[in-house]
From TrEMBL:
One Pfam family, short name: DUF2000
Organism, as annotated: Azospirillum lipoferum
Membrane spanning residue stretches: none
Protein name as it appears in the record: DUF2000 domain-containing protein
């Protein structure tokens, strides 16, 4: 069974929390189109695009814990865990080309993670995120 969780830095302002979750969701949809349901119609025949077929909680953590979680999650990728990160480098970039250049010039230890999306086997995702609180 597949599980997904978004983990966002609780210190971010609401707009950046929303932006981070949206950016992570876009990448998740690209990587895992199987998690998006088919298009549907309502009783009036109006079409509605497919949405997620799984629950996607938004959890919170702090910047240092996100860095640690990213490192721990990367060690589990061979077990089927997917890891998507949104960093300060991406947030500051003015275009994707700008992001590409900035990221290529930034070492891993210099990145500040604004949020992560972990997806894959439910037990694995839960083992890494089970103690984190929901965004309120």
């Amino acid at each position: 069974m597949t599980r997904c969780a978004f983990i966002i830095d609780r210190a971010l302002p609401p707009g950046l929390i929303a932006n981070t979750a949206a950016a992570l969701s876009m990448t998740l949809g690209k990587l895992r189109p199987d998690l998006v349901g088919c298009d549907l119609e309502d009783a009036d025949g109006v079409g509605h695009s497919g949405i997620t077929t799984i629950v996607m909680p938004i959890l919170v953590s702090d910047a240092e814990a996100l860095r640690t979680l990213r490192r721990n999650a990367a060690e589990r990728e061979a077990e089927g865990l997917g890891v998507i990160g949104m960093t300060d480098v991406a947030q500051r970039a003015k275009s994707y080309d700008d992001y590409r250049r900035r990221l290529a010039a930034t070492r891993q230890e210099e990145l500040r993670y604004l949020g992560l999306c972990l997806h894959g086997p439910a037990a694995l995702v839960r083992s890494l995120t089970g103690s984190l609180p929901l965004l309120k």
